[in-house]
Design brief:
Length: 310
């Protein structure tokens, strides 16, 4: 007797329905590198925050389905106000982005009036609107170095801020926010992984703690990691970021081996998007993400200044 995997059939049926609705609505699906595999596979573009921000700014589409977390969909809505931006998992928030408010940032600006404000893209639209320029993990050093000011308020990630401070003579003042996924990776995780895989390169994200960064072979954004493993002559890699990226690495460079630095490096909010939610979102064109025009106009300046840096 031949058994049919109903789950696989359902996934295939959903995929076909999504593709049909996507064409019907002239929609494009963007997915972050941390999304679950089946969502990455249905996406038109997969990347890190900077890559997806650039895509969102230049897409020829009426609808953007953003498979990520809230601040990413907000950024797309700010850059493409004429498009419908959908966030399939309405509760996919970023805990780090919620660690700073626009009000708290205004207080900082009053305390340090001569400082420039650099906000990580992992922030709310309101925080971006209070900032001079945005950055991502892949361009944070370039962004800080591009500024005339010698003093920089860096929000909200203390670990990324500390990493940037290594490469600039400017005074970087980080806010005490953090990504819980990266912040809980420890030096013991690195040493244990090296014992298990002594031939592997250790790649970590700059959202990790300084003591973890010190033990790594390389420090990259997610897309930087993917570029490294694909061009490297090495065959084994220990990956110090959210485990979802390994799906992308296996697709792009299947002849190599990848080991998560920590099995616990899982962002539960990134995992809230699945094929059913993508289908529901395209069918109903909800949940739609919008940003008030006055906030969007000011936030757009900070984002565009970042995008203008090559």
């Amino acid at each position: 007797m031949t058994y049919i995997d109903k789950t696989t059939l359902d996934a295939k049926a959903l995929k076909n329905k999504i593709l049909k609705l996507k064409e019907e609505h002239n929609a494009v699906i963007l997915a972050h590198n941390y999304q679950i595999g089946e969502v990455q596979d249905i996406a038109d573009f997969t990347g890190d925050s900077l890559e997806l921000a650039r895509k969102a700014a230049n897409l020829d589409a009426d609808v953007i389905v953003f498979c990520g977390v809230d601040f990413m969909a907000e950024t797309a809505a700010i850059l493409s106000p004429e498009k419908k931006v959908l966030l399939p998992a309405a509760d996919a928030n970023c805990p780090m982005a919620e660690m700073i408010t626009a009000g708290e940032l205004r207080v900082l600006k009053e305390r340090f009036p001569d400082a420039a404000v650099v906000c990580y893209v992992n922030t709310s639209a309101e925080v971006k609107a209070e900032s001079d320029i945005c950055c991502t993990s892949s361009n944070a050093v370039k962004v800080v170095e591009s500024l005339e000011e010698e003093q920089v308020i860096f929000v909200p990630d203390r670990n990324l801020g500390s990493y940037v401070a290594r490469f600039t003579d400017k005074e970087v003042m980080p806010w005490e926010g953090f990504c819980f996924v990266h912040d809980r990776i420890t030096p013991d995780d690195v040493m244990n992984a090296r014992k298990l895989h002594p031939e592997a390169d250790v790649l970590v994200h700059p959202e990790c703690r300084s003591e973890v960064v010190d033990l790594a072979d390389y420090v990259y954004s997610t897309s930087g990691m993917i570029e490294h493993v694909c061009r490297s002559e090495k065959k084994e890699f220990i990956i110090g970021t959210e485990v979802g990226i390994i799906h992308r690495m296996k697709n792009d460079c299947p002849d190599k081996s990848y080991y998560p630095l920590s099995e616990n490096a899982i962002c539960i909010t990134m995992k809230r998007t699945d094929l059913q939610k993508v289908y529901n979102s395209l069918e109903t064109l909800t949940p739609r993400v919008t940003v008030p025009e006055d906030v969007a106009d000011r936030a757009r300046l900070a984002i565009q200044r970042m995008l203008d840096i090559k």
